[in-house]
Amino acid sequence: MISGKEVMPLIEGGKGIGVTNGLSSGAWAATGAVGTFSGVNADSYDENGNAIPQTYQGRTRRERHEELVKYAVEGGVTQAQIAHETSGGEGRLHMNILWEMAASERILHAIMQRSKGLIHGVTCGAGMPYRIAEIASQYQVHYYPIVSSGRAFRALWKRAYHKFSELLGGVVYEDPWRAGGHNGLSNNEDPNKPEDPYPRVRDLRTLMNSFGLQKVPIIMAGGVWYLRDWQDWIDNSELGPIAFQFGTRPLVTKESPISESWKRRLLKLKKGDVGLNKFSPTGFYSSAVRNKYINELEERESHQVAYTSEPLGDHDQELTPGPRGRSFYLTKGDFKRAQEWLKKGLVRAMKTPDSTLIFVTDEKAREIRNDQANCMGCLSSCRFSNWSTNPDFTTGKKVDPRSFCIQKTLQDIIHDVDDVDNQLMFSGHGAYRFASDPFYSNGFIPSVNQLVTRMATGD
């Protein structure tokens, strides 16, 4: 039973910025499973069916932020309507939002008010969504928090969820080492040492049972490819009712809105081509394909030295890069490295919040500064631009040029470019299995119906 209806326990993972939309999620629901469209800056369309570009006219970040909220609401309502029509009344339809997106509560309220009867559940992660239960209860839809540990769910339950237990549709356990996109790794967990999900999910179930939630399903997410890999989890008394969420496999279907070049790139990935990184402006770890975009961010961070503003201890070597002639003091070793980077054309030294300098080309420095200046406030807190939804609309910290504008690259990869190698390409770590899975032989791209039928066999 998911969101009040008996369905196949197969769930489409909700991915942001148009990567799961009304057509893909409606097709999933039409099979008798659960479709999930993204409520994160989803597309709306003009009278000819073309996606409306999300361009910004406001002169200030606050003005652009209000434009972004309007785009988000219109897009969410549009995709809910398309999903409902496509589903034919079958299955269930969920909407996925990120708690750390800016104005998440405002956007959720507005979409739910205008989409009554179309959305059966809301999944929510990227942060600690305490208020999702209260908001869902106002519209009588089920809610599905995304957590990566029992400890996180305990905090959510104790603070808020126990008041709205009747609409807790399920708890999504998202494996922080295997899932795509943003991951919930804590400071106590080693990103390089993946843990077995079974004991973590078993502990989550034990905790849920102690709260009287024996019948509430756990939804396993992250690293799910073949159901046969998880047969010991099904009808397992330690785990109780279980469902499975597929995030990466649904990217390669006919209904998936991503570009053909993106789909073809996924079909050719090798093991290790997806890795964890911490470049995201959210501050969270995330999983993405290791392409030119990630390589450039890694190089940007590697061309980095600590500095002082005046001679201090070993920092006694004066460096004056750039036209302003501003002085920075480095150690002898770092001074030598910086001189080598300057000779290679990395002539712009950009300060970070950690009292370090990164060295980039003139062109890259202009791009970074333009992106920071054009910020539209898409996150509740952004380390790249220092935007925040705090009353003063700033994090109070310096901008961090080691990060990037996430709204820009995610909009570009879904809408504007075929060169996906130069954009952020989120993916689960199991994406390399496309290349070895016989279902995709000779570049075969299935329909959603074909994929779900295949999954139900165990393959």
Please describe what this structure looks like.
It is a single chain. This protein is of the alpha/beta class. It is built from twelve helices and 16 strands. It has two domains: 10-280 and 431-456, TIM Barrel (Alpha-Beta Barrel); 292-422, no CATH class. The protein is 31% helix and 15% strand. The strands form four sheets. Strands 1-9-8-6-5-4-3-2 form an eight-stranded parallel sheet. Strands 7-11-10 form a three-stranded antiparallel sheet, with no helix packed on it. β2, α2 and β3 (92-98) form a beta-alpha-beta unit. The longest helix is centred in the N-terminal third of the chain and has 27 residues, at 61-87. The model has no long low-confidence stretch (mean pLDDT 95).
**How many distinct beta strands?**
16
Radius of gyration: 23 Å
**Strand residue percentage:** 15-25%
Query: How do the strands line up in the largest sheet?
Result: 1-9-8-6-5-4-3-2
Task: Summarize this structure briefly.
With 459 residues, the chain is of the alpha/beta class.
Write the layout of secondary structure elements.
Blueprint: E1 10-12, H1 22-30, E2 34-38, H2 61-87, E3 92-98, H3 104-114, E4 121-125, H4 132-138, E5 142-147, H5 150-159, E6 171-174, E7 181-183, H6 197-210, E8 218-221, E9 242-246, H7 260-267, E10 274-277, E11 285-289, H8 292-302, E12 304-306, E13 317-319, E14 328-330, H9 332-343, E15 348-351, E16 356-360, H10 362-373, H11 406-415, H12 448-456
Parallel strand pairs: 1-9, 2-3, 3-4, 4-5, 5-6, 6-8, 8-9
Antiparallel strand pairs: 7-11, 10-11, 12-16, 13-14, 15-16
Helix pairs in contact: 1-2, 2-3, 5-6
